[in-house]
Amino acid sequence: MTARLSSTVALVTGASSGIGEATARSLAAEGAAVAVLGRRRERLEQLADKIRADGGTALVVEADITDQRQAAAAVGTVVARLGRLDTVVNNAGFMGVGQFADSPIEEWERMIGVNVQGLLHITHAALPHLLRAAEDPPRRVADLVNISSTAGRVARPGTAVYNLTKFGVNGFTEALRQEVMHKRVRVSVVEPGTVDTELGTHLRDGVRQAVERQIEGMELLRPEDIADAVSYIVTRDRRVAVNEVLVRAGEQT
Ligand code: NDP
C-alpha cells in the first residue's frame, strides 16, 4: 500500500458494481477512507467488508442520486461520519441503447436522471467540502472526477440519448474545471471504452443481443483498468492537473 491518499476521504458513486467498485478498492488501497454509494445496500456492504479486510476504512451510503435530497443527505452523511471530503468520483451511470425512434421514454429519463441530474446533485452538494479540503493539509488539493465515456466524444447511431448525457458530462466538466481551478479543486473527466461490467446487462431484449454480437471476441477493458486511470489522476502532486483521460480497449475503434 503506497498510501498517497492517507488522511483523506473519497466518495465513489455507483460503487456497488463495475468501475465504481474497482475504483473504491483502488482509492482505499491508496489510503483514503472511502464512502461507497449506490442503491443496492447488500452489494455495498460486501464491498465495504472487502475494503476493511484489506486494512482500509469504508462507509456504506445507500442513496438514489436522481433524488436531490437523497444525494445531498448522502454527501452530508459522508462529511459527518468521516470528517471531510477530498475526492469525489461521479461514476454512477445507466446506458440505454437502440434507435431513438424506438426508445422508451423511461429509458431516456433514467439516463438523464442518473448520468446528468444525479451527477449534478452530488457535485453541487460536494463542492463546498472539496473547496474546504483544497485549502487544508495533508494535500491542499481536492479532486472531482467524472466518469464519462468514449460516447462523450464520439456519437454513433443507436446511442443518441446516452451521447447526449455523456457529451453533457464532458462540457460540464470543462466549464466547472475552469471555475474552480484557481482554488485547487481539480475537475477531470475519464472516458472509458467498452468495459466488462453489468452496464450491458440492463439493455433491453433484442438490443442487448445486438450489442453482445458487436463485441463478441473482443478483449474488453476490465473495471480495474479505469480504476487505475482514476487513481493516477487523484494521486498527482497538486501542481499537476490531468484534465482528461480516454481509455479504449485495445481493439476498439
Ligand atoms: P454498472 O452497471 O456495473 O454500474 C453502475 C453503477 O451505477 C451501479 O453501482 C449502480 O448502483 C449505480 N447507479 C445506477 N443508478 C443509480 C442511482 N439512481 N443512484 C445511485 N447509484 C446508481 O456499470 P459500469 O461500472 O460500467 O458503469 C460505471 C460508469 O462508467 C457509468 O457512468 C457508465 O456510463 C460509464 N461507462 C461504462 C462503460 C462500460 O463499457 N461499462 C463504458 C464507458 C463509460 P445501484 O444499482 O446499486 O444503485
Structure, described:
There is one protein chain. Strands 3-2-1-4-5-6-7 form a seven-stranded parallel beta sheet, sandwiched between helices. α1 links the parallel β1 and β2. The chain is α/β, with parallel strands linked by helices. The longest helix is centred in the middle third of the chain and has 29 residues, at 105-133. It has one domain (9-246): NAD(P)-binding Rossmann-like Domain (Rossmann fold, 3-Layer(aba) Sandwich), CATH 3.40.50.720. It has helices at 18-29, 41-53, 68-82, 105-133, 160-180, 207-215, 223-234; strands at 9-13, 33-38, 58-62, 87-90, 142-147, 185-192, 244-247. Bound molecules: NADPH dihydro-nicotinamide-adenine-dinucleotide phosphate (NDP). Residues 13-20, 38-40, 43, 64-66, 91-95, 114, 118, 147, 149, 192, 194-195, 197-199 line the site of NADPH dihydro-nicotinamide-adenine-dinucleotide phosphate. InterPro entries: KR_dom, NAD(P)-bd_dom_sf, SDR_fam. One of its GO terms (cellular component) is membrane. Pfam families: adh_short. This is Oxidoreductase.
Average pLDDT confidence is 96
Beginning-to-end CA distance, first to last residue? 35 Å
Number of helices: 7
Q: Which strand-content bin applies to the residues?
A: 15-25%
Proportion of helical residues:
40-55%
Widest beta sheet: strand line-up: 3-2-1-4-5-6-7
Ligands? NADPH dihydro-nicotinamide-adenine-dinucleotide phosphate
The major sheet is characterized as:
7 strands, parallel
> Quick one: how many beta strands?
7
Could you say which overall geometry the principal axes of the C-alpha atoms support?
globular
Q: Specify the structural class.
A: alpha/beta
CA-based gyration radius: 17 Å
CATH class category: Alpha Beta
* Low-confidence segments: none
CATH topology: Rossmann fold
Number of domains: 1
Order of helices and strands: EHEHEHEHEHEHHE
CATH superfamily: NAD(P)-binding Rossmann-like Domain
CATH architecture classification name: 3-Layer(aba) Sandwich
